[in-house]
Amino acid sequence: MKVTLNKKGGVYSVYVPKKDLEELVVEVEQQGAWGGLFTLNNGWILEFPELDEEPELPQTFNTKLVSRG
Protein backbone atom coordinates (compact mmCIF):
# COMPACT_ATOMS: atom_id res chain seq x y z
CA MET A 1 0.00 0.00 0.00
CA LYS A 2 1.46 3.36 -1.00
CA VAL A 3 1.34 5.99 1.73
CA THR A 4 2.93 9.38 2.31
CA LEU A 5 4.68 9.87 5.63
CA ASN A 6 5.21 13.35 7.05
CA LYS A 7 6.64 14.68 10.31
CA LYS A 8 5.78 18.00 11.93
CA GLY A 9 6.99 19.00 15.37
CA GLY A 10 8.21 15.49 16.14
CA VAL A 11 4.84 13.89 15.27
CA TYR A 12 4.46 11.58 12.29
CA SER A 13 1.33 11.51 10.14
CA VAL A 14 0.38 9.13 7.35
CA TYR A 15 -1.74 9.93 4.30
CA VAL A 16 -3.32 7.05 2.35
CA PRO A 17 -4.34 8.47 -1.06
CA LYS A 18 -6.58 5.57 -2.17
CA LYS A 19 -8.66 5.95 1.00
CA ASP A 20 -8.30 9.77 1.24
CA LEU A 21 -7.29 9.11 4.84
CA GLU A 22 -4.86 11.03 7.03
CA GLU A 23 -4.02 9.71 10.51
CA LEU A 24 -1.47 10.50 13.19
CA VAL A 25 1.09 7.88 14.20
CA VAL A 26 0.58 7.03 17.89
CA GLU A 27 3.29 4.37 18.30
CA VAL A 28 6.45 3.26 16.50
CA GLU A 29 8.03 -0.15 17.03
CA GLN A 30 11.38 0.51 15.42
CA GLN A 31 13.28 -2.19 13.58
CA GLY A 32 16.85 -1.22 12.73
CA ALA A 33 17.96 2.41 12.53
CA TRP A 34 14.60 3.55 11.07
CA GLY A 35 11.45 1.80 9.96
CA GLY A 36 9.32 -0.94 11.43
CA LEU A 37 5.75 -0.98 12.67
CA PHE A 38 3.84 2.28 12.84
CA THR A 39 0.48 2.25 14.66
CA LEU A 40 -1.99 4.86 13.45
CA ASN A 41 -4.64 6.70 15.45
CA ASN A 42 -7.37 4.62 13.76
CA GLY A 43 -5.76 1.32 14.90
CA TRP A 44 -4.09 0.35 11.63
CA ILE A 45 -0.55 -1.01 11.86
CA LEU A 46 1.70 -0.38 8.86
CA GLU A 47 5.11 -1.94 8.31
CA PHE A 48 7.61 0.54 6.86
CA PRO A 49 10.89 -0.60 5.24
CA GLU A 50 14.03 -0.62 7.38
CA LEU A 51 16.45 2.18 6.47
CA ASP A 52 19.91 3.16 7.74
CA GLU A 53 18.70 6.61 8.82
CA GLU A 54 15.50 8.65 9.00
CA PRO A 55 14.59 9.83 5.50
CA GLU A 56 13.75 13.38 4.48
CA LEU A 57 10.01 13.81 4.87
CA PRO A 58 7.41 14.02 3.40
CA GLN A 59 8.06 10.91 1.33
CA THR A 60 5.99 8.16 -0.27
CA PHE A 61 6.61 4.58 0.85
CA ASN A 62 5.37 1.13 -0.11
CA THR A 63 4.12 -0.30 3.19
CA LYS A 64 2.43 -3.49 4.29
CA LEU A 65 -0.86 -3.32 6.19
CA VAL A 66 -0.23 -5.65 9.13
CA SER A 67 -3.53 -5.04 10.95
CA ARG A 68 -6.68 -2.94 10.69
CA GLY A 69 -6.88 -2.85 14.49
TrEMBL record:
<dbReference type="GO" id="GO:0009399">
    <property type="term" value="P:nitrogen fixation"/>
</dbReference>
<dbReference type="Pfam" id="PF06988">
    <property type="entry name" value="NifT"/>
</dbReference>
<protein>
    <submittedName>
        <fullName>Nitrogen fixation protein FixT</fullName>
    </submittedName>
</protein>
<dbReference type="InterPro" id="IPR009727">
    <property type="entry name" value="NifT"/>
</dbReference>
<dbReference type="InterPro" id="IPR024044">
    <property type="entry name" value="NifT/FixU_barrel-like_dom_sf"/>
</dbReference>
